[in-house]
Structures are given as structure tokens and as C-alpha cells.
Amino acid sequence: MQRILIVEDDKTIAMGIEYSLKQEGFETYICHDASSCKKIIETTSFMLIILDVSLPDGNGFELCRLIRSKSSTPVIFLTACDDEVNVVMGLDMGADDYITKPFRIRELTSRIKSVLRRYNIHNNGKALINIGDITINPTEAKVFKDHQEIFLTALEYKLLLTLANHEGKVLSRNQILEGIWDVAGDYVNDNTLTVYIKRLREKIEDDPQNPQIIKTIRGLGYRVGE
Questions:
Q1: Which domains does the chain have, with CATH numbers?
Q2: What residues are annotated to bind DNA (predicted)?
Q3: How many CA atoms lie within 13 A of 106 on its CB side?
Q4: Which among 176, 171, 175 has a CA at the least distance from the CA of 221?
């Protein structure tokens, strides 16, 4: 069963999301505060977590940090605030998408399916990709650095895979955007791509300030490898 956790203090909104997701065949769990969320993620695994930013005893950003310290479970933020700083902050913490209230339930379910599709991207039968001390296993959608697994969000993984599949070639920002996003996404644009590049470098580079894997080719784009 595909389990989704809904962390939302507004019971009406939570029930509406739960009803719609059940109609789509998902098994749903609801938490109305941060403390109950912390308890359930210790004992139950989920394929995706929907996090309200404002909670009575905490906030979604804190929960996202906790979730990311334990797993790479996809996270979608719900919030009444569409301030760009909050959007970028959420994405920079490892969220996979960010949707503002009020929203249409159909839009949310579309975003959920989009994120889940990205997490299930597999190049069946493709050999391991090695770039320096980084190894990508496309069959399992996993990335390792010095044989230690690195937890990447779906977009981070897809970004790395897009660059790695064109090793030695310079990709423009537009080419990268075309490779990592789909019709359901609103927040990966030319500006937020910089956030993803920065976050990915922080995870895979020995020295993110002097990147040796993902290189910036000034005025042209980015390149992996020579």
C-alpha cells in the first residue's frame, strides 16, 4: 500500500486531502501537530509526506530537517505564505515541492504524482555511472560517495543524472531545466536552479566552494567531467 502522511493542523483541509488521496488509492495518515508527526515517523515509513509549515507546536521546516536526517522520503510543503524567501528556504531544506494555500485538491494530487514519478525514474539495465568518487546507480536511483550512500531529493538526483548522462558536455541552464522538470512544476526556474546546483554541490563535492564535479562554464552553463 502506498502510504502518505498528512501533517496539517486545519482539520477541514486535512480531511479534504485525505478523502481525495483515498479516492486515488493511497493509504493516508494524519497528524495535526509536530509532536505526533515525530512519533509516527519513528515507527512507520511513508512514500511521501505533506507538511504544513505552520503548526501549533512547531513548524514544517523543523520537521523537514528531521525527516531529511533519517531518509530521502519525498516532502511537499503546504503553506499560506508564498514569499520567495520561504519557497527557496523550503526547497533548500530538501523539500521536493511547495504549494500555497488556498489550493485546488486536484493540483495537489497532480503535484504528488509528479514527485512520485520523479522518485521512480530508473534506467533499467544501465551500468553504474562513475564520476570521480561519485557513483550513480540508475537502476536503483541511488548515489554513493566513497561507497557511502548520499540521500538526494528527486530533483537533486534527476539534476545529477541529467548532467552525468552528458558527461564532458556543457549543458545550458535551459537544457538542464528541460531535463529535470515537468508540466506539474512551478518552482524550478532559472533562479531556483541555482539553489539546486548549490545544494547538490554541498552534498557531493569535497569543497563546494571549489567544485570539481559540477563545473560552472561561465556564460554557457554547467559541465560534469572533462
A1: 3-119 (3.40.50.2300), 129-224 (1.10.10.10)
A2: 126-226
A3: 0
A4: 171
Q: How would you class 36 by CB atoms within 10 Å of its CB: exposed for 0-12, middle for 13-18, buried for 19 or more?
A: middle
Q: Model confidence over 74-132: pLDDT tens digits? A: 899 988 766 666 677 777 777 888 888 888 888 898 888 888 776 654 334 456 788 88
Q: Cell for 28? A: 493516508
Asked if residue 214 lies in contact with residue 200, where contact means CB atoms within 8 angstroms, the answer is yes
Rounded CA-CA distance 195/70 in Å is: 22
Distance in angstroms (rounded) separating the CA atoms of residues 76 and 193: 18
Give 26's contacts (C-beta < 8 A, 6+ positions apart): 2, 3, 4
